[in-house]
From TrEMBL, chains A, B:
<keyword id="KW-0238">DNA-binding</keyword>
<dbReference type="Pfam" id="PF00356">
    <property type="entry name" value="LacI"/>
</dbReference>
<feature type="domain" description="HTH lacI-type">
    <location>
        <begin position="2"/>
        <end position="56"/>
    </location>
</feature>
<dbReference type="InterPro" id="IPR000843">
    <property type="entry name" value="HTH_LacI"/>
</dbReference>
<keyword id="KW-0805">Transcription regulation</keyword>
<dbReference type="GO" id="GO:0003677">
    <property type="term" value="F:DNA binding"/>
</dbReference>
<dbReference type="InterPro" id="IPR046335">
    <property type="entry name" value="LacI/GalR-like_sensor"/>
</dbReference>
<dbReference type="InterPro" id="IPR028082">
    <property type="entry name" value="Peripla_BP_I"/>
</dbReference>
<dbReference type="Pfam" id="PF13377">
    <property type="entry name" value="Peripla_BP_3"/>
</dbReference>
<keyword id="KW-0804">Transcription</keyword>
<dbReference type="InterPro" id="IPR010982">
    <property type="entry name" value="Lambda_DNA-bd_dom_sf"/>
</dbReference>
<protein>
    <submittedName>
        <fullName>LacI family DNA-binding transcriptional regulator</fullName>
    </submittedName>
</protein>
Amino acid sequence: MTGIEDVAALAGVSKATVSRALSGRGYVSAETRSRVEAAASSLGYVVSSSASSLVTGRTNNVGVIIPMINQWFFASILEGVERALLDRGYDLMLYNVTKTEAERTKVFEYFLVRKRVDAVIAVTLEITPEETSQLLALGKPIAGIGGPLEGIPTLSIDDVEAARLATEHLILLGHREIMHVGGDVHEQMDFHVHSKRLRGFLEALQSAGLPADEHSYVATRFDIPGGYTVGKQILGDPRRRPTAIFAAADEVAIGVIIAARELGISVPDDLSVIGIDNHPLGAMFGLTSLEQRPDLQGEQAVEWVIRQLEQPGWAPPPVHSVVPARLVIRSSTARPRPRAS
Amino acid sequence: MTGIEDVAALAGVSKATVSRALSGRGYVSAETRSRVEAAASSLGYVVSSSASSLVTGRTNNVGVIIPMINQWFFASILEGVERALLDRGYDLMLYNVTKTEAERTKVFEYFLVRKRVDAVIAVTLEITPEETSQLLALGKPIAGIGGPLEGIPTLSIDDVEAARLATEHLILLGHREIMHVGGDVHEQMDFHVHSKRLRGFLEALQSAGLPADEHSYVATRFDIPGGYTVGKQILGDPRRRPTAIFAAADEVAIGVIIAARELGISVPDDLSVIGIDNHPLGAMFGLTSLEQRPDLQGEQAVEWVIRQLEQPGWAPPPVHSVVPARLVIRSSTARPRPRAS
DNA sequence: CTGAAAGCGCTAACAT
DNA sequence: ATGTTAGCGCTTTCAG
């Protein structure tokens, strides 16, 4: 394996100069630099990251802890993080920590045990206070996405606001019988997403002077089958059927629409459905949705940690800060035509 | 940061002994070992991976190159790979290489440039011969999943056989008008999956003495919307409608079923649909499916590369070897009742 | 079974 | 602007 010494010899300079020329740190004359670069590439030289990490203390790796990969939201975040990281010249170490205790400890051990990452990005991680302090004890930049992590700067959209916007959109279209299909407020891994979206919904109704009771809201699993099941129930009885539904997530909304279509209910003609996320499948179902860009959140988190790495002293926005996603009503997709009023 | 020297001092032994005790390599008396371990954990000592990599030449990292994350098949592989790697004590470096040229070269540069992985797993990577040789030139264990990579041991299911099994299942149930909805044979990133599944389908028909013409097969995009679009076309005309459909992937099958239900066609009563993959959403649509376990392929690939790492001399099965997935007909879900004979 | 010592390949002062 | 030199923290002969 060709090392820095070979390059130095070929270029007729010292190892130090090669290091400076290739890393861009320190003064090197343009002429020398190009000679070194030529030598390096002709030899196919590449720095040994272990050697350079050993002396600099920097690994150029960022660890990502994520609870699942096989769901649109999480996969999107991961894609965004990966893209941003690669772009900035960092590598991504993936830790898919599931709920099982054994795996959790293993991951935390690895992180704490191996000093191989410069920073950590934690995605909707549900962790105990002690796990948090273990993370913090690393003394490395950390950013969270999607769930407030006590003591850790976290990114997420403004759920209350998003829900309110969605609901107001329906109200503006003339709907008065609007129902909310959301997640179970008592669910694990909630991070108050469900309760916040419910709150935004209720606030919007209230502002518009519309009544809200326990029939205005129903909880289900946060995926397509969840929405489907509930959709069949809600829409089965024509007398109780709302004219519009605000689903807390596109996946739920899609389930509802599938159910509706099977029942011969046309969306959006007979029933308006709006969701949050802008899930790619939405287009197929004529779904109106507020755009949440998990990939952008991922990119943002990367910015946060890298900025801390590269300009010491800089600190991300305070704990639990909430960065609103771009909320876009794709009105072209939504043409609700309420029967009521 | 506490180093090996501190541990040695506290345990009253030399650095060398600490190293042996903690790494498990070399002779250390049981008594000494436990003293060292106690010292290490009381100090919260962890080895510096850069230092140890520098001297051993091993990083304990495996690189994974994958073209996309946000799709069931790919995410499943990634989950399987991650699980297996974590289990064996390796870390996973993720490289999501999309089609854009810039990103590709960047990834390949990183791999070639940084010597930070011990092995590489390439998922359905469509690479040029020179990229292949770049990979091979790394001189590190490599395994591919899903697409035959010239010169690289690759895992995939037996597509022809899977398609044949699925089709035979329908034939056995009495169907004679069976249609295949598959991917476009001329598609990029094909790896012959589409043509192989088509071939298996045709062979099954032929063996059963059933006719097959150009109307027996239709190509579409390999996802839910793709299946939906085609479903509407195929099933719209009651006279041409087949009694059964073999979809080349569950996602396509699900699209077809959604279309069928909207048309008032009951699955599986009026129409049998079978797919390949055992996609989790299948259950919601009463879909019969052959089980493909991408996560298991991921785990297998990990075994291959790690085995090469840990027992030099061992070699994985020859190039392009095909490992059949577990093919499970979930007959409980499928109750086709053909109108024809 | 344990210790001493020689690096692994590079970077960062410090000189020049 | 470039060269010299002293390690970074660990593993691994080689002695004992």
